[in-house]
Specification:
Elements: H1 9-20, H2 22-28, H3 33-56, H4 62-88, H5 94-107, H6 112-124, H7 133-136, H8 141-146, H9 150-157, H10 180-206, H11 208-221, H12 223-235, H13 254-259, H14 266-273, H15 279-295, H16 304-313
Helix pairs in contact: 1-2, 3-4, 3-11, 4-5, 4-11, 6-10, 10-11, 14-15
């Protein structure tokens, strides 16, 4: 099916290849098995280590709060690992990627097949009205502040906050839906996710502090806030009239790149043009492409605080060029 996106990623790729050379682009896509597996081990170790600290430190102490915030971002990063390793790059092969992606997704409360199929459609239909429509539903300040809570996140994701305008835009034929084998896999994954949560309940019976404080508390208290910031740093400000400006072009630094797994702001924009660049080469790609993108009219943002003010206080429209 032909893309309905207002962004011509084929042309964007061609211009970047012409500007920087095919060899440079190929090098940016070069995987490193060592870095892939090192990241995987470090990430899981951080998750279990922080869960242990949250279960042993005094709750609400400064170190505990710091670990709580860190664990919220670590849990959100399971979604990023699913996205980079197992949906785009198939690290370890397709079979391994499916099962490890399934487990990785469960930790972030994501089903691998629905996530993957919807994400592929997101790349194909970036910027269309049905694309990530639940984010467009957040068209009032109160909805956006509610989105900072677990209740608001669930209501938004289930499309319970949509306005009448949202119903006027049907999805492109065949897009954003599961068919045949994908539907069956998704049904199986829902049952496996239920077993995952039953297992968590059993673990919570024996080790309540580690499960409730080390896992459930960060999901409930930190992840919705982290996810809302992620929403701002992905497609909150775009310009459909500029084939390169498909995402918020926020200038990420070492901290924001780490917290959002090299997939927020300027990294996310480059990801949409070249989806298979490994996260550990994304920083170099962004730094290389930035002057080119700015010269072609992509508006660069350097203040995260100003972006958050624009989104939450000025209620700037999602997926549009903001007024200021």
């Amino acid at each position: 099916m032909e893309s309905a996106s207002p962004y011509d990623f084929t042309q964007a790729k061609k211009e970047l290849v012409d500007a920087f050379g095919k060899e440079a682009i190929v090098d940016l896509h070069r995987p490193s098995p060592f870095l892939d597996w090192l990241t995987f081990v470090v990430h899981w170790s951080a998750f279990f280590g922080l869960a242990w600290l949250l279960g042993t430190l005094r709750p609400l102490s400064a170190p505990w709060i710091l670990c709580l915030v860190a664990q919220g971002f670590v849990i959100m990063a399971f979604g990023y690992v699913l996205h980079d390793f197992f949906v785009h790059r198939f690290v370890g092969g397709k079979r391994f990627s499916y099962w490890m992606g399934l487990l990785t997704g469960f930790v972030a409360y994501l089903l691998r097949t629905p996530y993957a199929e919807t994400h592929y459609d997101h790349h194909l239909h970036t910027g269309t009205d049905p694309d990530e429509a639940y984010k467009d539903d957040l068209d009032r300040r109160w909805k956006r502040f509610l989105f900072l809570t677990p209740v608001g996140y669930v209501l938004a994701f289930e499309r319970n906050l949509r306005s009448k305008r949202a119903d006027a835009f049907p999805a492109p034929e065949g897009a954003f839906r599961l068919h045949g084998a994908e539907r069956k896999r998704a049904s199986l994954e829902r049952r496996l996710l239920l077993l995952f949560w039953i297992g968590l309940i059993i673990l919570a019976w024996f080790w309540p502090r580690f499960v409730l404080l080390g896992y459930i508390a960060p999901i409930a208290l930190v992840m919705p806030i982290a996810n809302a910031i992620r929403t701002v740093l992905e497609h909150a400000e775009t310009n459909p009239k500029n084939l390169f400006h498909c995402a918020t072009f926020y200038r990420t630094g070492p901290i924001t790149r780490l917290l959002f797994f090299w997939d927020g702001g300027d990294c996310h924009l480059v990801h949409h043009i070249f989806p298979n660049i490994p996260f550990y080469r994304m920083g170099r790609a962004v730094d290389l492409f930035r002057p080119f993108l700015v010269a072609r009219g992509v508006r660069e943002r350097r203040s995260l605080l100003e972006l958050l003010r624009g989104y939450f206080l000025r209620n700037e429209p999602h997926r549009a060029l903001w007024s200021a």
